[in-house]
């Protein structure tokens, strides 16, 4: 079972059960004392013992006291601070204020310096902490260790920082709060055979003797602690082009693997400067490729020293997929956007992190589209960001945009809400206020608030000012920006807009309610919803004007506009609004009739994707009968564009899971094959030199499902590629298609074919996971899979983290894999911890009472609580409530009739 097949509700429940609900203000640091400038000195010990090393340092913090106080509260975590080296000096008089006591609060990570005399109001002080030390490990947090392997096989260590959200305090005592911005002078002491880089340019280097050097960097601009950064390594860097260098392991630099990222960086920074109307404030923009396994997120926007996972910077024709190349462009655009949204203007509290991540997540696609216009990135935004946000945000466990907590970083709620939902709401705002007003409003917002910290109301005020200046209040239906936007940033979830047409008096009634995908909950929220529409009977079906024609602000309203009674009506042009749309059944059927004609392309491609995504999700939630999305989906027999195909393919795991126990499963498979065959014929099995960017995604998507469902030509082509490789030593498959082709070749491969690939896997690495091991897991031969698991167990691969990946792959690929997995659990002798993991993985795919009883028995023999009942019972319930009989009846009718002549009857 894939991650997506496990219900979003269950996934979120598991994650969110570990997260406290409300933001605890007691964790906020007092704001009466604020930093002005840090002078930070850090010495790094690069000698590693038992997977750890140490660092030590000192810090001088220039402070401003806005009111009288008898103590100073900083943050620190796991630092050893020599309290005898702490001194506080009044800046003007030079008088020392004696320290009376030190108090530590481990839960809130406070380090409280109590004073004998009070700080004076509106006075400046210098706080010196002359000695602190900490430990570096390979934990991805704070100042930590990472390592890479040279082409000669030697392991080399580096030390790098990652401080977001609240991990600067693990590296030095500080005011680790986004609103407490300051300038930094950073000194790094390093061994002679290492170099150091930081946020700013190197000012000078001092020889300290004993092979120790201290690099001093220019003072930074005012910035929050979480974007402070430094790197100690033996990396090389590319040549400098304008303001840009990229630091990476030497082999990558020598091989030219950073050239693409470097040229992209140069292009992108200029694009961001032009849009914002503000020049980048630093004199340099260095990028760092952190070894893949030693970076918890994709990238981090440290000011002037942006860190990335290696695969987002190292691009080569031999190993980089289309997705890798796109991610290189979008991640650079994302992090560069942060230099303005997040760094220059910072959110005042972590709860407002969407002011940073929402804009960066939107602009990674928008700025990326300016750098690579042929890629159609803004179309991709709709299906890869907005629609996925809607999927997650429809659960009862989601949160509002204004509810981020620092400890949530990297969690599903953070990704889906602060990144995906917020960027979708920003895109919606761009369309209802227009592109130019948003751009001018953001320019004002950045200019008025640079080097400051803000709240959403500051953003809305800047946008309102432009609306007022241009007298464009009609764009908002004479509502205010803040009244509109607060319904989106503070309400949890999103609305379902239901459209009922009165075909007699040519009016429509619009109503809104919060949309829930499965479990309903009491909710009376309302949103200010921008409604744009187009109808078939119009002489000009204009999908380009996405401004709001109607504002739905109440629970329900009736519009007296002339909506015609003939043809279809479509709400939410280009799916610019962050909501789902439901129609009366007559209108749904009219849309299906039109799409199943040859002029289906007259409906905008994004709206075709919206129709598929909305309809299937409405059917899953019980809002419409399943024949609605199934009738609509039939038009896909003519569709070749990836944008509408992807939402259908994204829904297939759920549909396939439901239908896998059906006697009509073969009809279902043929239905899917019918719908995807046109796209397959259009893009072909083999990659072509003139392939459009999205055609490459189409090929991957359709071949994966067609081969999986038994499309004869697809499977035979895959097997032929494998056998040609075996015969002539050349695997003539693109990087994009390699994994999919090998996996589907192995589905029908004989023992000799399988053994050939197994030898390749072992030769590539006898101890580590690679794409060949993954492909071998795709076999649908029970004997082969049993033998495979036993070989892996004997080689010890199965008992490490890579073995988990292989076992997962076997289970998720087929019901044969589930059967083999269950047999293996019964008979294999493995450690209890690994046995528990195997039971968990298999349980996610089980869906019958018999399987539930058997997995209960296996789990009962182990200590601990494995959620077998919850997982399998949930799957059983999903199938019971899935309207499977309705789907089966539709499929029987589909199977009996020619797809072109199937009659769609108006209700």
TrEMBL record:
Its EC number is 3.4.11.-. The active site is at 335 (proton acceptor). It is a lipid-anchor; GPI-anchor; Single-pass type II membrane protein. GO terms for molecular function: metalloaminopeptidase activity; peptide binding; zinc ion binding. The keyword Cell division does not apply. SUPFAM superfamilies: Leukotriene A4 hydrolase N-terminal domain, Metalloproteases ('zincins'), catalytic domain. Residues 260-488 form the Peptidase M1 membrane alanine aminopeptidase domain. Keywords: Aminopeptidase, Cell membrane, Glycoprotein, GPI-anchor, Hydrolase, Lipoprotein, Membrane, Metal-binding, Metalloprotease, Protease, Signal, Signal-anchor, Transmembrane, Transmembrane helix, Zinc. One of its GO terms (cellular component) is extracellular space. Binds 1 zinc ion per subunit. Residues 568-827 form the ERAP1-like C-terminal domain. It is found in: Cell membrane; Membrane. InterPro entries: Aminopeptidase_N-like_N (IPR045357), Aminopeptidase_N-like_N_sf (IPR042097), ERAP1-like_C_dom (IPR024571), M1_APN-typ (IPR034016), Peptidase_M1 (IPR001930), Peptidase_M1_aminopeptidases (IPR050344), Peptidase_M1_dom (IPR014782), Peptidase_M4/M1_CTD_sf (IPR027268). Residues 1-21 form the signal peptide. It comes from the Eukaryota. The keyword Zinc applies. Zn(2+) binds at residues 334, 338, 357. Its cofactor is Zn(2+). The record marks 419 as: Transition state stabilizer. GO terms for biological process: peptide catabolic process; proteolysis. It holds the Pfam family ERAP1_C. Belongs to the peptidase M1 family. This is Aminopeptidase. It comes from Ignelater luminosus (Cucubano).
